[in-house]
């Protein structure tokens, strides 16, 4: 793979990844309601799901989703319902929920359980978007030279994607966390849950419309 090809891939991936979608909105929500450490766990879950979908696409599983309307519909609407559930739950959460973030007295076991809970939540949201797999199937071949070994090329593309996707997920999370002090100073703490819940409900609508 030439440097020029890789640079074009990086720029294109940056543009595609920065577009607000279910994963980005979830990350922003976690950043607002749970803080930066929780957003890290959530971002890892989202990236893991996308990475698995990338390799599954390369293995040909995307052909199943693109040809089976039933499989595509089940995965898609499962994700829509899950995001809607998370959005309603966040919307109805009391304002005091914001004060329960990342307590220093929390036990190591509890922190681990919380980490994996956030990781699993983001993983499920990421894995529930079947169009991501179809996107990879159409996108990746544009940057692979069939005259060269494909394994190393795929590894470079996947590694680059992970770094870029994680960067944008954390950027959304950090952006969300910056809103909290502003809302607290204005006395509108409850708005944090309203905004985060609305973002997740919007993400479910976004996934449903695709």
Description:
With 210 residues, the chain is an all-alpha fold. The chain has helices at residues 3-18, 22-33, 36-58, 62-67, 69-92, 108-127, 130-139, 150-185, 190-209. It is globular.
Structural features:
210 residues; mainly alpha; globular
Fold blueprint:
Layout (H helix, E strand, L loop, with lengths): L2 H16 L3 H12 L2 H23 L3 H6 L1 H24 L15 H20 L2 H10 L10 H36 L4 H20 L1
Task: Give a brief outline of the structure.
The protein has 210 residues and is mainly α. It contains 9 helices and no strands.
Kindly report the average pLDDT value.
76
Kindly state the number of beta strands.
0
The shape is globular
Q: What share of the residues does DSSP label as strand, in percent?
A: under 5%
Number of helices: 9
Report the radius of gyration as a whole number of Å: 18 Å
List low-confidence stretches.
96-105
Task: Give the terminus-to-terminus CA distance.
Answer: 32 Å
Structural class, please?
mainly alpha
Order of helices and strands: HHHHHHHHH
Largest sheet: none
Helix share of residues?
over 70%
């Amino acid at each position: 793979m030439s440097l020029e090809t890789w640079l074009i891939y990086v720029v294109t991936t940056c543009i595609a990844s920065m577009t607000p979608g279910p994963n980005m909105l979830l990350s922003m929500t976690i950043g607002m309601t749970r803080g930066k450490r929780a957003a890290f766990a959530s971002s890892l879950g989202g990236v893991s799901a996308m990475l698995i979908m990338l390799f599954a696409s390369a293995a040909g599983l995307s052909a199943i989703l693109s040809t089976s309307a039933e499989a595509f519909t089940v995965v898609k609407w499962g994700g829509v319902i899950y995001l809607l559930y998370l959005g309603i739950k966040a919307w109805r959460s009391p304002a005091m929920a914001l004060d329960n973030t990342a307590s220093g007295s929390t036990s190591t076991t509890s922190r681990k359980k919380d980490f994996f809970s956030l990781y699993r939540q983001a993983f499920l949201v990421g894995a529930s978007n079947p169009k991501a797999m179809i996107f990879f199937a159409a996108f990746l071949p544009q940057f692979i030279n069939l005259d060269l070994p494909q394994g190393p090329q795929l590894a470079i593309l996947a590694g680059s994607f992970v770094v870029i996707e994680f960067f944008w997920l954390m950027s959304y999370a950090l952006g969300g966390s910056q809103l909290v002090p502003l809302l607290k100073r204005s006395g509108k703490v409850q708005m944090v849950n309203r905004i985060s819940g609305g973002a997740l409900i919007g993400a479910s609508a976004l996934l449903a419309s695709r």
